[in-house]
Amino acid sequence: MKYYLENEFLSLTFDTLGATLTSIKNPLGVEYLWHGDPAYWSSQAPVLFPICGSLRDDQAVTRDGREMKMPRHGLVRKREFEFANKDWNMVAFKIRSTPDLLEAYPYEFELTIEYRLIGKEIVVNYFIKNRSPVDMPFAIGGHPGFNCPINEDENFEDCYIEFEHEESCTVPAPLSETGLIDAKQRSPFLNNQTVLPLSRDMFKEDAIILDRIRSRKVSLKSYKSENSVTVTFKDFPFLILWSSPNEGPFFAIEPWSGLSTCEHESDIFEEKVNTQIVKPGHINKYSYSIIIG
Questions:
Q1: What is the pLDDT at residue 152?
Q2: DSSP state of 78
Q3: CB neighbours of residue 187 within 10 Å
């Protein structure tokens, strides 16, 4: 089912399937969100839970012996959510554990996703409630894709990423065949830069995993126009940049709390990098925002 939010700056559309954004338009009808063409990438802005990325062979085990089996990016992105609440500038959706979800992820959970429209800013709030009697490990992340270029008369290479701070970093190697990460094989990436020009060659191997940057705000901009998208992600330590290797006209800016299993890691879920824990009966909250320029 579709839901809508609108103000003088933006009109937003949401779908209960995946509790996801499906459109971000300004008053001139300019669409900022990727439309999900399956020739390139059929999704638009999926929610990743209770993993971000991949597990080794799609499996893991918890310290107390509970088995997990789930595909890349987790279990909820293709699930129907319940409508939870709506106000003049807010809409929220909810999903709870079901018997089939418990077979894959053996914890009773409740995930609420809330979207707030404040001027030109879309605030995305994730509320993860543990309804189990034991500590619940998880990861959560956003995967919004934006039209790139935003304007139809421009090219992908006319766009660039602008970082909040000057950055110098290396990046780990993604292993596209397995979906895992070789964290020990790192390549130079940014060298005292605030601006990263985009090129198709950047994504021939897979996504770019920024696990060592200071910035908590990045912007997708164009050399030829004023339209822009800024993503802020103070609650997320990792940022993934991605576009499809077959030259899809979109660019994904993804705040993640965790990463795919690294080659050197065990298959114990709690030992994955930055695994989050929510205590029984408690709620963890994580937020990021999309600002349209």
A1: 87
A2: T
A3: 10
**Residues 278 and 284: beta-carbon distance below 8 Å:** yes
Nearest alpha carbon to residue 179 among 51, 68, 274: 51
* CATH number for position 120: 2.70.98.10
What range does the domain containing 6 cover?
2-292
Query: Please, what is the end-to-end C-alpha distance for the chain in angstroms?
Result: 28
The string of pLDDT tens digits covering residues 177-233 is: 888 999 889 999 999 999 999 999 999 889 999 999 999 999 999 999 999 999 999
For 219-234, letters b (16+ CB in 10 Å) and e give: bbbbeeeebbbbbbbe
CA distance 252 to 116: 21
Output the six-digit token pair for 33. Answer: 């969100």
Look at residue 67 and give its three-state secondary structure: strand
Q: Which DSSP category does 46 fall into?
A: P
Q: Which residues contact 118 (CB under 8 A, 6 or more apart)?
A: 89
Q: How many domains does the chain have?
A: 1
The position carrying tokens 């205590």 is 279
Tokens, residue 176: 């596209």
Predicted local distance difference test score (pLDDT) of residue 91: 98
Q: Looking at the whole model, is its pTM more than 0.90?
A: yes
**What average pLDDT does range 95-101 have in this prediction?**
97
CA 136, chain centre distance (Å): 21
